[in-house]
Amino acid sequence: MIESEYDDDKTDYEKDIISPSTLPLLWNLQTLYIDSQGRQISVPSKIWEMPQLRHIEIMLAVLPDPMDAQGTITILENLQTLSVIHNFRCTKEVVERIPNLKNLKCSYNFDNLEEWSYYCLHNLSRLHKLESLTFTAKDFSLESITFPVSLKKLILSDCGIPWKDMTIIGSLPNLEVLKLDNDAFKGWEWNPVEGEFLRLKVLLIKSCELVWWTAEDAHFPNLEVLSLRFMRDLKEIPSSIGDIATLKSISVQYCSDSIRKSAQQIMEEQQSNGNESLQFYINDTVEVKVEMDCDGCVRKVKNAVCSLKGVKTVDINRKQSSERLLGSIQSLKECEEHRLRGYESVSMSTMIRTIDVVFVVLRFSTYENKMRKISEKYVEAYDEMKSQYKQFCC
C-alpha cells in the first residue's frame, strides 16, 4: 500500500501525483491512496498496467483512457474499488479492464460538462460485480445511465432527478441501501409504486426538496431503517411506514416540527399496538464545540451561540495552541457545495449544521486568504465573523 499527500504548496490545479516512470516500479502494488487535499489529480496511463491493484482511492481523480496506454493490454482482475473518479467516462474499453469492480464513486464537475452521452454511463450495466455506487452530478437525468442489476448500495447527491423517475431505481432487484443527499431528487411529491424496492433495507433522505410523501407499508416490504435529515419542507412521515413488519428504527434529525410530530404519532401508535421493538431517534438539539484561547471571552461566546436559532447546547474547549473564529454562514446548500468540491480540507476545520444556520469554525489567521478565495459571496459573512471574534475576546 502507498499513501501520498498532495503538496498544498504547489499551485498547479491539475497534477500527476505519481510520474509515469515511477508507476512501473510498483507492479506489485495493491492499494493506492492519495490525499489530494480536494485538488484534481491526473492519473498516468501506466495505471492500466498494474495487474495487482485492488483499491484506488484518490479524491477527484481523472482516470486516463486505457487506449493511451502503450504497454501490453492488462485486465485489472483484482481491482475492486475506484474512488473518487472525476468526470468518469465509462467506455467499453474501461469496462473491459475492470470486470470485477465492486465499489465505484464518481463525481461530475458542475461546470463545463459535455453531453451526458459522452460519458457512456449506459455501460455501467456491464459491471456485473458492482455492488456500491456513489454518484454526484448536477441536473442529471436517469435516462443517461443504466444501473447494473448487481447493485446493492446506491448514494445519489445533487442530481435534481424528478421523483417520478424513482421507479427506475425501485426496480433494481438487489438494492438494499438507498441514500439521497442534497437535492438528489427534486419536486414536491413522491408516490412510490407497489412491487418496487423489494429488498430495500435502509432508506436515508437528506436535504431534499420534498413536501408530500404518500407511501404504504407494501411499498417498502423489507425496510429496516428509515432516516430523515434536514427535511424542512416535508409535511409528515406516512403513518403506514410504522406498520412495516421488518422496520427496526426511524431517525429524524433537524427536520420540520410537523415531521417530528408525525414521528411521535407513529411511535405512540406502534407502542399502543404492542410494538416495543421499533426504535425512534428524534433529535432537534445541536451541540456546538468551540475552541478558544482566551479565558475571559468564554461566557460571551456561549451566550452569543445560545442566542442563535437551533442551538441549545454549547461545549467550549479552551486550547492556547489554537486560535479559532466563530461565525455563521446562512447558505447551507452553498456551503455543502463548496465542501463537496474539497474546500473543507483547506479552510473549514469544523462544520456544525443547525436548523437554519451553518456554523463554521475557521482557522483565523492561517487560512484567511484561502477563505476569501472560495467565493465573493462569503466576504461579507467572513468580515462579520471577524468582528464577532473581536467582540468576544478580551
Task: Briefly say what this structure is.
With 394 residues, this protein is an alpha/beta fold.
Q: From the coordinates shown, what is the CATH architecture of the largest domain?
A: Alpha-Beta Horseshoe
Overall structural domain count = 2
Largest sheet: 13 strands, parallel
Q: Whole-number average pLDDT?
A: 75
Report the sheet-strand fraction: 25-35%
**CATH fold type of the largest domain:** Leucine-rich repeat, LRR (right-handed beta-alpha superhelix)
The portion of residues assigned to helices is: 10-25%
Structural class: alpha/beta
Structure description:
The chain has 394 residues and is α/β, with parallel strands linked by helices. The chain has two domains: 2-283, Alpha-Beta Horseshoe (Leucine-rich repeat, LRR (right-handed beta-alpha superhelix)); 286-392, no CATH class. The chain contains eight helices and 22 strands. Strands 1, 2, 3, 4, 5, 6, 7, 8, 10, 13, 15, 16 and 17 form a 13-stranded parallel beta sheet that branches. A three-stranded antiparallel beta sheet has the order 20-22-21.
